[in-house]
Amino acid sequence: MKSLSPTIRTASSCAAAALRTGTTYHTIVVEGLKIFYREAGPKDGPVLLLLHGYPSSSRMFEPLLTHLSERYRLIAPDYPGFGYSDAPPADEFDYTFAHLAQIVDAFTQALGLRKYTLYLQDYGGPIGFRLALAHPERVTALII
């Protein structure tokens, strides 16, 4: 009988997985906020911008980073207030979809992303649709 016990990933097993997939972890300052993101795949590959849901973070994309990194450049940011990105107090930061989309747009520009496929679900939908409406020339496809 197969065990149903959860798999426990230690720091060393996470580091080993990162080595296998080529996943790297970064922060970049966007509009005064540290934005954390995961990246995998060839720098010259087609870009998939992975926009996470709620309540989640870029961590939810680890399986995609593993399975698609040979062919695509995958970039998965944590929005402000999520994951490892800065979380300013709500009285100092407007946590609206419009503002989060503005931050993600500035993030894509800071990384020099000129063309990308948007992977959207849950919270990523209203953020990604705003990106697509603001810059349709950048969006090569939508995965919803």
What do you see in this structure?
The protein is an alpha/beta fold and 144 residues long. It contains four helices and six strands. It has helices at 11-21, 62-68, 97-110, 124-134; strands spanning 24-30, 33-40, 47-51, 73-77, 116-120, 139-143. It has a six-stranded mixed β-sheet with strand order 1-2-4-3-5-6. β1 (24-30) and β2 form a beta hairpin. α3 (97-110) crosses α4. Mean pLDDT is 89; it is low at 1-14.
Give the strand tally.
6
- Summed over residues and divided by their number, the pLDDT gives a mean of 89
Strand order of the largest sheet: 1-2-4-3-5-6
Number of helices: 4
Shape verdict: globular
- Beta-strand content: 15-25%
Query: What distance separates the N and C termini?
Result: 37 Å
Order of helical and strand elements: HEEEHEHEHE
Alpha carbon gyration radius:
16 Å
Structural class: alpha/beta
Question: What is the percent of helical residues?
Answer: 25-40%
Largest sheet: 6 strands, mixed
Low-confidence stretches: 1-14
Distinctive features:
alpha/beta, 144 residues, 4 helices, disordered N terminus
Summarize the helices and strands and which ones pair or pack.
Elements: H1 11-21, E1 24-30, E2 33-40, E3 47-51, H2 62-68, E4 73-77, H3 97-110, E5 116-120, H4 124-134, E6 139-143
Helix pairs in contact: 3-4
Short note summarizing the structure:
30% of the residues lie in helices and 24% in strands. A six-stranded mixed beta sheet has the order 1-2-4-3-5-6.
